[in-house]
Amino acid sequence: MKQLTVSNSTLQFKRYKWLFWVAIVLVIYIWGITGVHFTGIKDSAGEVSRSIAYGIFHPDWKYVYDGSGEDLVSLILQTLAMAFLGTFISAILSVPFAFWAARTGKPRFHVRSTSGKLVLTLIRTFPEIVLAIMFIKAVGPGSFAGVLAVSIHSIGMLGKLFSESIENMDFGPSEALMSSGGNRAQTLVFATLPTVLPEFLSYTLYRFEIAVRSASILGMVGAGGIGTPLLFAIQTRTWSRVGIILLGIIITVTLIDYISGTLRKRLV
Amino acid sequence: MNIVPTRTFTQKYHVKTVVWLTLFILLVIGTAKMTGVDFIMFFANFGQFTALLQQMAKPDWQYTSLVVQPILETIQMALIGTTVGTLVAIPFSVLAARNIVKNKFLRGIIRFILNLVRTLPDLMLAALFVAIVGIGPVAGVFTLAIFSFGMISKLFYEAIETIDEGPLEALQAAGANKIQMVVFAVIPQVFNYFVSYFLYTFEINVRASTVLGYLGAGGIGVYLQRSLDQFAYGQTAIIILGILMVVLIIDGVSNTLRERLL
């Protein structure tokens, strides 16, 4: 009899568990909504959005190419170059980080891999914009600072993805090499790297897609690429210029995504 | 008799690999020229960089109390932005799912719009919305709403496309209309995925919202920009530490919840 009542009360608790969650969510949302001070929308909002829409549909075609090196095509190429070089450097730098952070057949907590994972998380959370500003102090404003920012920031994500693919790789080839007397360096070069290389390449391409997006905004803090003229055009309210730059970015990102997606499908 | 397999000229000298490698190296050199990479200058000026790091290594602890409120504001911005984006994304994701909307043309248009929205980088949206609605957290909320709309609608329609067709067919056979089918067959199947993706997007938005303020869209980014402009790197260090902690906590909570959901 007693047993029955106990199970009954736990049943009752389970039945009303959703109420508990709803209450928590409600409290969080009330806190959220009261927190954001609605500073109001500027009276000119409607007018500005109309001008933006007008600018996007009447882009400044003259800006596309004028041979000065400060036009849309050259700057978008520069953005792509930043993303490409940054991702390339970061892919090379990520490999040692990946081996540092990879946990292979060891217990759950392992000093080497846990510390490596922590470092990668720290790199990942460090805002890319701040990194770009720091590099601007070192090498001056321009796309080189952007390249450095992309290459350091990407380590966080690439290192994590690389280390996961090392953890999940097939250890057959490396065991075979070791049992036939290969030393560590030989195992690495002839078994481990060839096994993980296609995945590494695929992740690098994926990261390149992301880098193109972030390279296009790094210019907003002065780190080169298309971001600088875009911010300038927004601040000076030259909406036809904003329109053409937006079009340029949308087309570039779509194209790069498509090409990289096709390549990645062929790789894996 | 054994026949030694012969290799063609291209195979023997790895022509394909060599060509690709040469192209790749040329591309690296070309892009390095284009972006003005100069590692000699980088290492020559490395002293400035380390000086900056040294300044950041001495956090200005008194600044901590000032940072708490804007960080909370950042989380609130992310929460509301993600929620608004999700609410708008739900109808769009249903319309973009292959197994719900059989009309290829309508689906194509919706997916095209979603793809366009996804190409826009977050800071660029922030700059636009600051121009439209003015400086403040409202611009940040709009930015994050649009940003999470693009992301979440794709995750949602992919989740909807993986559902089991059985309940759908059963409801259709029993004479249910489209809306009833969505409510009683689709939503119960995808609800957990939706919540999980919502949390995931929220994580990303918290990260993104920390820098939106750099362009005036509210939150901790405003303070980040101020400290960087004033060369007060001790304060910058505190802000970055704060961002780090918040991101780690939110990631931890959201990961635990997501693991329990799926």
UniProtKB/TrEMBL annotation, chain A:
One of its GO terms (molecular function) is ABC-type phosphonate transporter activity. One of its GO terms (cellular component) is cell envelope. It is found in: Cell envelope; Cell membrane; Membrane. The chain crosses the membrane at residues 18-38, 75-102, 210-232, 238-259. It is a multi-pass membrane protein. Keywords: Membrane, Transmembrane, Transmembrane helix, Transport. PROSITE patterns: ABC_TM1. Belongs to the binding-protein-dependent transport system permease family. This is Phosphonate ABC transporter, permease protein. The lineage of its organism: Bacteria, Bacillati, Bacillota, Bacilli, Lactobacillales.
Automatic annotation (TrEMBL), chain B:
SUPFAM superfamilies: MetI-like. Signal peptide: none annotated. The keyword Cell membrane applies. The keyword Transmembrane helix applies. InterPro entries: MetI-like (IPR000515), MetI-like_sf (IPR035906), PhnE/PtxC (IPR005769). CDD domains: TM_PBP2 (cd06261). GO terms for cellular component: plasma membrane. PROSITE patterns: ABC_TM1. Keywords: Cell membrane, Membrane, Transmembrane, Transmembrane helix, Transport. This is ABC-type phosphate phosphonate transport system, permease component.
